[in-house]
């Protein structure tokens, strides 16, 4: 890297640090974006002020173009901004389905008018989006979706059902895959945007085994979608949808310690607390200790792979093949960690609610339960393994018969 | 399946048809949604007792049928299939075993007939921390009084008679404490798997010793562990069969998903593990009936193997059902939650692997 670039980057670091110091309320330290889990309507005045400040600055989507309200930062500058946020325990209050999945897809495939209409409200955290992809009969086999779309000239009339739409109960708009040609499979699908606050759309949250309802069923009865809101060509929505799923999968391959998937307390700390230590200060249960270490080693290798993939993507021409393993590797680690946490907590990890359990214990089991879905949503483990086997390893598809 | 006597086959068949007719998983769901404090349906328990199931291991002169642990295991297995909530394990197996093995004639006469007819519920209060460690009981017994705190007491809310481990002048042993003793304070647990349970504090509660010392504690625990493993076998078997049925009907990519070899192999692996686990569970129950000196190691083998198997099958049940298995409206979550709770109860896999190693001097 040239010295001049490094100097600029340090100048930007100073600017970011000063701006965060002037705008981030210290009381919010350690928080997360409300827009990932609900509509932010329950925001405190501090949370609201922080969202507005970041939204106006465009730094909630730091590398998106300024023309659409984004930060216009280079990738390096966006990285520095994140470092500066982390340094003081601040967070990006704008992160949502819109910034992680929908926005990047619309920036790539949308018309100029669509970008000008939809991107700025996402950057300001004012409009929330949900994803209408899966149907009861179209899960892993997404391309078999049946949502009926009648062509009425300037608009479509939609009838059918979507399922597993994250956050639909809080969303304003839905990006949706619909069937516009019944004679073809992938090539009969279109990608359309529609407002969900209309008479033909009913949203019902689905109670999950964790007690939460993060996903919804959506029922469409003569719902209206305008043709101007098609993204990509008519019957050309599959490519747009697949691109969006790539953004979803890279967003989901965290393998991390979000409390959505259980307790954030380090496993070794939990084990020493709940299982105890031997006279040398080691976790008292040697069997458990070796399994915690095996997890820790795999988690470290996962993080090393994420770093390697990033460096290779920067230096080489194309994306690293390592990217393809990240969703499955991450989701499996998420589940393994939650399973270990529940085992470590023993009978304190089995509570559903009540005063006999701490908040962290309840988070551990609810997150363990919700985390079972991490190998299901956004493309199941099995579908991801098929992608690796066929696209990366070049193994034949049995459905296509024998021979190369 | 073990080679059963004609009477055992009849008992198992009776349990199977009662469970199908009177206690499907929908009954468990209804019980959960009702929020009933004891954690089971009293009418169903009365029916079970009327069929003699609460007296299967109780000697005939105390109102039971003296039919043995393998026989009771058959009933527990059938109940486990539909997650039927009842005090059968804690009372008719746990407390009854303690009284049979360690009770005086007067203690047996006072409690066994009532337990055998389901009129009284007994429970075992052993653990004091989040992990099973029966040899480290800190509760104390002095001059007829017991004090201490016990956690994760299954059927602790319903119990009329508590069998409590505590440290007396000769080390850790078992004691009887009446549930209505003024020194007993219970806090109901709301468990993820909806089984009835309590944390219980004893403050100078009136207690009577059972005879047998620490050896009795382990003997009673081994019987409960084997009984729980039998229940887990039923639950895991049903979880597997429900999943297998789904593989045969769910269509994606134009074919039933059970036609995919990746899933076929995982189903075959589960079947393999279940067959192995069944052998271990039946061997443990048979060893108890034969009063075999190998009982402790066979019980630890069964609980560890069954724990791993139920863990595997319950995880696969969710994964193979996909999104629908994640919904509360589906039964998969019930089996998943029960699996982890049953794994943790009376020693998890790590505990029993370690115990197996110690018995063998590894």
Write the layout of secondary structure elements.
The complex is a heterodimer of chains A (404) and B (362).
Chain A: H1 3-23, H2 45-57, H3 75-87, H4 97-109, H5 112-123, E1 129-132, E2 148-151, E3 155-166, E4 173-179, E5 189-195, E6 201-206, E7 215-226, E8 230-231, H6 237-252, H7 267-274, H8 286-315, H9 326-345, E9 351-353, H10 359-371, H11 381-392
Parallel strand pairs in A: 1-4
Antiparallel strand pairs in A: 2-3, 3-7, 4-5, 5-8, 6-7
Helix pairs in contact in A: 1-3, 4-5, 4-6, 7-9, 8-9, 9-10
Chain B: H1 6-22, H2 25-34, H3 42-50, H4 69-81, H5 88-102, H6 105-116, E1 122-125, E2 140-142, E3 145-154, E4 161-168, E5 171-178, E6 184-188, E7 190-191, E8 197-209, H7 213-249, E9 251-252, E10 255-256, H8 261-289, H9 295-321, H10 332-344, H11 349-360
Parallel strand pairs in B: 1-4
Antiparallel strand pairs in B: 2-3, 3-8, 4-5, 5-8, 6-8, 9-10
Helix pairs in contact in B: 1-4, 4-7, 5-6, 5-7, 7-8, 7-9, 7-10, 8-9, 9-10, 9-11
Q: Report Rg of chain B.
A: 20 Å
Beginning-to-end CA distance, first to last residue of chain A:
45 Å
Biggest sheet layout of chain B: 7 strands, mixed
Mean pLDDT of chain B: 97
- The CATH C-level name of the largest domain in chain A is Mainly Alpha
Question: Please, could you describe this protein's structure?
Answer:
The complex is a heterodimer of chains A (404) and B (362). Chain A is of the alpha+beta class and 404 residues long. Chain A folds into three domains: 20-95, no CATH class; 129-238, Butyryl-CoA Dehydrogenase, subunit A, domain 2, CATH 2.40.110.10; 253-400, Up-down Bundle (Butyryl-CoA Dehydrogenase, subunit A, domain 3), CATH 1.20.140.10. Chain A has helices at residues 3-23, 45-57, 75-87, 97-109, 112-123, 237-252, 267-274, 286-315, 326-345, 359-371, 381-392; strands spanning 129-132, 148-151, 155-166, 173-179, 189-195, 201-206, 215-226, 230-231, 351-353. In chain A, the strands form two sheets. Chain A has a four-stranded mixed beta sheet. A four-stranded antiparallel beta sheet of chain A has the order 2-3-7-6, with no helix packed on it. In chain A, strand 6 (201-206) and strand 7 (215-226) form a beta hairpin. In chain A, helix 4 runs antiparallel to helix 6 (237-252) and helix 8 packs antiparallel against helix 9 (326-345). The radius of gyration of chain A is 23 Å and the shape is globular. The two termini of chain A are 45 Å apart. The relative contact order of chain A is 0.08. The model of chain A has no long low-confidence stretch (mean pLDDT 90). Chain B is of the alpha+beta class. Chain B has three domains: 6-116, Acyl-CoA dehydrogenase/oxidase, N-terminal domain (Butyryl-Coa Dehydrogenase, subunit A, domain 1, Orthogonal Bundle); 122-211, Butyryl-CoA Dehydrogenase, subunit A, domain 2 (Beta Barrel), CATH 2.40.110; 215-359, Butyryl-CoA Dehydrogenase, subunit A, domain 3 (Up-down Bundle). Chain B contains eleven helices and ten strands. In chain B, the strands form two sheets. In chain B, strands 1, 2, 3, 4, 5, 6 and 8 form a seven-stranded mixed beta sheet that branches. Chain B has a two-stranded antiparallel sheet with strand order 9-10. In chain B, helix 9 packs antiparallel against helix 11. Chains A and B meet through helix 8, helix 9, strand 9 and helix 11 of A and strand 7, strand 9, helix 8, helix 9 and helix 10 of B.
